[in-house]
Amino acid sequence: MRGTAIPAAAHPSPDVLVLGGGLIGLVTAWRAAGRGLAVTVVDPEPGGGAARVAAGMLAAVTELHYGEETLLELNLASAARYPDFVAELEDATGLETGYRACGTLAVALDADDRAHLRELHALQQRCGLESQWLTGRECRRLEPMLAPSVRGGARVDGDHQIDPRRLATALLDACERAGVAFHRSRALRLLTSRDRALGATLEDGTELHAGQTVLALGSHSGTLEGLPPEVAPPVRPVKGQVLRLRMPPATRHGAFLSRTVRAVVRGGPLYLVPREDGELVVGATSEELGWDTTVTAGGVYELLRDAHELVPGVTELPLAETRAGLRPGSPDNAPLLGPTTLAGLHLATGHYRHGVLLTPVTGEVLAELLTTGALPEPARPFTPQRFASSRPRALQEQPV
Q1: Which end of the chain is more exposed for a tag (fewer CB within 10 A), N or C?
Q2: pLDDT, tens digit (0-9, with 9 covering 90-100), for 184-221
Q3: Do domains 8-52+165-235+331-387 and 104-157+237-329 have the same CATH topology?
């Protein structure tokens, strides 16, 4: 039986106040409650946010970029936790998360892309990662729907996927079962006194006080009123448009796609993520357009055009949904995890492309910090203090 949300009044002064009920806020609340802390989450629609748009690739290897080797270690640590994390979450709730250990195939469509992918494959090998180079013919043998123009690719069996929407639903249920209270309103202002965070004022006028406050508002984390400039996280919104199509049922000849397929087409990254329920997620654009979440004809066209070049049969599939969301980007594309210089205020934001992947390790890190005051080793390179020497980036206010 699904749990029932506990009224916010049940914890008038909780141990922990989590501002933001996306994947990161929910996993923080669940893990903290599991350590015996009284937790309240503030969000007008918990379980929403970027999780409604994200594709759910758990791509520690194929998402590796030059200069991000330190982030790679955190990504790998979280990826290794996923099987046990999913098993525990599904056992606690009885809900499925759509986790699939299906692997990923990254392919190249022309000579330039092949040379670039070869360099990335060499980087993966230098980092000790499992990645197998394939010829174009071998790629098409694995995925017959690929275009004949595919010139080669890298097979990474360890990069899996999960359905972020189902994951969010399961985490919300797990929080409710663990006694987490929810206040369905928007956090408006951080409450402070004598250089310490005390909680938050909500849009409905409620004041919530707590011993510790976690700022997990995603791309909106830097816009909270009352944040001292020196602790405001330099997080910005990066727009991504995503399509959802419906694949035909698998036949004796196989599925439309059996694994996640990635490529660079016309210089831009593209991915196709097939779900077991027949959904095919195609994404994603990357646009620096502030708070705009409009789905545009151009964005849809570019995704379908590039997907057709990679998998020609994709344009015959029914188009089920178009969405646009905001990734929380940071100056170095890595998350901000841990305490700020304002006592009682911790950050769990700025996960950018890796929010779904980093969900398990973020929950563990924040729960340990909230209960012991110590930041675990995996998160120490990602403390908010690494940006303390520079002025916080000015953020445009969210439109009313």
Answers
A1: C
A2: 999 999 999 989 999 999 999 999 999 999 999 999 99
A3: no
